[in-house]
Amino acid sequence: MQAKHLELEQVGIDFPTPKGPFTALTDVNLKIAKGEFVSLIGHSGCGKSTVLNIVAGLHQATTGGVILDGAEVKNPGPERAVVFQNHSLLPWLSVYKNVELAVKHTMRGKSKKEMRDWIMHNLELVHMTHALDKLPSEISGGMKQRVGIARALAMEPKVLLMDEPFGALDALTRAHLQDSLMEIHADLGNTVIMITHDVDEAVLLSDRIVMMNNGPAATIGEILDIELPRPRDRLKLADNPQYNHYRHEVLTFLYDKQKKIEPVSSHIKSNQAGGGSAKKANSKSDAA
Ligand SMILES: Nc1ncnc2c1ncn2[C@@H]1O[C@H](COP(=O)(O)OP(=O)(O)OP(=O)(O)O)[C@@H](O)[C@H]1O
Ligand SMILES: [Mg+2]
Prior knowledge:
By secondary structure, this protein is α/β, with parallel strands linked by helices. It has helices at about 50-55, 95-105, 110-125, 140-155, 170-190, 200-205, 235, 240-255, 265-270, 275-280; strands spanning about 5-15, 20-30, 35-40, 65-70, 70, 80-85, 160-165, 190-195, 210, 220-225. β9 (about 210) and β10 (about 220-225) form a beta hairpin. The longest helix has 18 residues, at about 170-190. Adenosine-5'-triphosphate binds near residues 24 and 44.
């Protein structure tokens, strides 16, 4: 592994709250090699988005810091593109123009045609060329997320940061985009950090799965190396013992070692509200 591409060193963060500082993260240490695909998994509220936002330069760590290719990350930058948990398109710009705005300064010096071809290529990857002139309010949540992914890819970032990028999508679109992401990652070799709640997605896509402890003062609990050869085929992997072993490891971490104990009464209430207890713990298949 090439070391020293992206390093999180002793990262900790305190958020100010009316009751005093709240320590969300402490002692997060992680070295990521160039081109590596790392997933972050952990229960809701443990601090995954906070880690990603610190790498993006949107939050400043209270202790420690992030170093990318030898330089400390202090601000957001185009070499670290983010796909947010909730799509974040500019509502007054069309699909095409949202992507165009993001690539304008990374493609300075290119001709109009080159720029248009590049925007179209990235929108094709996510199957959104049919809606170029639509405003975000005129397309579905899943479509907005696809445009967000195209926008991030079009910036050709060194590091692609994705916060539950496929969480809002139906299963087929999700599978299709996971496959596209694997192809794009193989072609471009960018470093990816992706947050997911989906255990299958984490195993299918990752070189390493970073499993986080529950907060407050959350940190990395375990790291699992996924040594499945690439390219990976979801159908073949379904019966692969190694694949199932990895799945089991992650599920054990989440539901045994980091189990969240909920009082029985809350399960009864959720059943009465129409959501079964299994569904509550598992709103997506095997989701954390
Ligand atoms: N700006 C903030 N001020 C105060 N507390 C915050 C702030 N941002 C996050 N937190 C707290 O830090 C913790 C981690 O939040 P974070 O959003 O990183 O969790 P997460 O793992 O991404 O959760 P989810 O899976 O639900 O998205 C939570 O307890 C959250 O309430
Ligand atoms: Mg989050």
